[in-house]
From TrEMBL:
This is 2,3-bisphosphoglycerate-dependent phosphoglycerate mutase. It comes from the Archaea. HAMAP family: PGAM_GpmA (MF_01039). Keywords: Gluconeogenesis, Glycolysis, Isomerase. Pathway: Carbohydrate degradation; glycolysis; pyruvate from D-glyceraldehyde 3-phosphate: step 3/5.
Length: 206
């Protein structure tokens, strides 16, 4: 069974280098192109069901991917897959925030496992909602023999990748999830990772 994770295409606030979180920001034209490219890259895979967050940048990316693949499948939308909530930082430019609070502090807010931004969620907090949903819903479909596509966000996916690959809190700050790049896991019947491919345009995988 295949489990495919895709971070949404570039959003307007990605382009403007702002903290987005739960603010519902649309895709840019580049983001739509990234979604189309993701659809082309996974066209050879069968998809039985798709999951996404309730935020439009993810739901639109999923719609574009499925359209590009020429398939229609059941879609489950749930806020458990929403991006990490950035609290008081939402809407702020990342470079300006680094000038105010210092680069190391902002880096800790963005990348660490347990440090919360002011009024927001840490990655650990995010994982407490993403992983139960992942185990109880998404992995149940995988266990039933379904190929599952999940389109979500940088940090909600980072928290799920951390669980799948058993990545430590010390190593997770170095894990990047690029926009519009499919991560394809081959899963066993026991929901263990057998293989992983990161698909790109140049050679289909790396």
């Amino acid at each position: 069974m295949h489990l495919i994770l895709v971070r949404h295409g570039e959003s307007l606030w990605n382009r403007e280098n702002r903290f987005t979180g739960w603010v519902d920001v649309p895709l840019t034209e580049k983001g739509r192109e990234e979604a189309k490219r993701a659809g082309k890259l996974i066209k050879g895979y069968r998809i039985d069901v798709a999951y996404t967050s309730v935020l439009s940048r993810a739901t639109e990316t999923l719609d574009i991917i499925l359209e590009e693949m020429g398939v229609k499948v059941p879609i489950i939308r749930d806020q458990a897959l929403n991006e990490r909530h950035y609290g008081n930082l939402q809407g702020l430019n990342k470079e300006e925030t680094a000038r105010i609070y210092g680069e190391e502090q902002v880096k800790a807010w963005r990348r660490s496992y347990s440090i919360r931004p002011p009024g927001g969620e840490s990655l650990e907090d995010t994982q407490k909602r993403t992983v139960p949903f992942f185990k109880n819903c998404i992995l149940m479909d995988v266990k039933l023999g379904k190929n599952v596509l999940v389109v979500a966000h940088g940090n909600s996916l980072r928290s799920i990748v951390m669980y799948i690959e058993n990545i430590s809190p010390e190593k997770i700050p170095f894990v990047e999830i690029p926009t519009g790049v499919p991560i394809v896991y081959l899963m066993s019947k026991e929901n263990k990772m057998i293989d992983k491919k990161v698909l790109n345009e140049s050679n289909g995988q790396n």
